[in-house]
Amino acid sequence: MGQKLKIAGWVSIGVVAGALTTVSLQTVARGAMTPLPLEEIQQLSAVFGLVKTDYVEPVDDKKLITDAISGMVASLDPHSQYFDKKSFKEFREGTTGRFVGVGIEITQEDGLVKIVSPIEGSPAFRAGLKTNDLITKIDDTAVKGLSLNDAVKKMRGEPNTKVTLTILRKEESRTFPVTITREEIKTQSVKGKVIEPGYGWVRLSQFQERTVDDFVRKIEEIYKQEPRLKGLVLDLRNDPGGLLDAAVAISAAFLPENVTVVSTNGQLAESKATYKAAPEFYQRRGSGDPLKRLPAALKTVPLIVLVNEGSASASEIVAGALQDHKRATIMGSQTFGKGSVQTVRPLGPDTGLKLTTARYYTPSGKSIQAKGIVPDVMIDESEEGNVFAALRMREADLDKHLGSGQGEEQKDEAREKAREEARKRMEEEAKKPVAERKIPEFGTDKDFQLTQALNQFKGRPVLVSKTLTERKEEKKEN
Question: Catalytic residues, which ones?
Fold first, then answer.
């Protein structure tokens, strides 16, 4: 595999949003050290000395150096990051689909942590926690005021340790504590089913180490139930990305052998690479081709890919490859626009550096950095329109984001106005009973975009968005 990135560490293509995700290659360390600018290093040393001698109270040497490294890397772009011991461990957990915790999917509501769903078989599931339960305290810490990431960190820990959650269950008008013993949780990144005779739906929520194997099993199940599949929906909505080899494998499952899936280009010679729909670009060392078990019909079954503003990175690689090769119809709204590659290099046994090393390009050579994949058919998220889409952050909204390198960016003046309107609608929706809210769960019979995908398969009228337009790259402030 001559064009694979031969860089120390792993290749990372996940998005910065939330607790996730991302790594792939581990190879040999690079040897040569870059010459240091003497004058600037002397200035850094002088500042270090002044802080040590003149600051109001003593400051730990290690903290000063660590903060200096963190600041240097964080100033580059939203995805470059220095990992200390704790954050490096959490980062690696996110790519495996395994972590130690209580086993709940969560969001925020009114400053509290709201349980979206307990993971089946997890400690939280066995403890009787339910969808829509609110967590008001984690041990002795009040949740109000905590970020979602901070709440996640407090609930995670070492195996066989205990955490006490204080639960507010509104429908029963009661608050009660639940003590849960943490254990290793295996997240499920693939869901799927036959949604009606002749048509299947497969949803990928993240690209993890087990995603390809789980995808193959799910496709086998669908074809066993429905051998004459007339159409398949690949649902990548709100999938924030993950492992590069998993994205290449999922693309290869649908594409002809050896066509280009994605290419990368950066400053290093090793960053200039092309990934193709062939086993050597996605199979792991010591294992066979995970796609061999797939039915041959998957290469030709009519395919629709659903995407939205939350589809990022690895999701955009898959959507871009299938779109450029005209293998699928892309439906939904414009994707997140994370078209950059991160490499994670270990700096020691338990610290590391995640650094943006390349942009990636679809098979036709388009960079989607800060732009995203534009669907073939623009579809609103509900019959009432894009109720909350403007609230979702995209790459172009992130401070210090990279440009695409393929032309001038343009500012979208209407964006903030749309956001303010969406915030007001969100507040109104939150007051309604769950059953009456506008945005249903993906994959249900009330999933508006999935219904439009089925209409597209059947040649029925599709309710195309009257308001969605292509969003251009936004001009960066200097």
Answer: 313, 324, 338
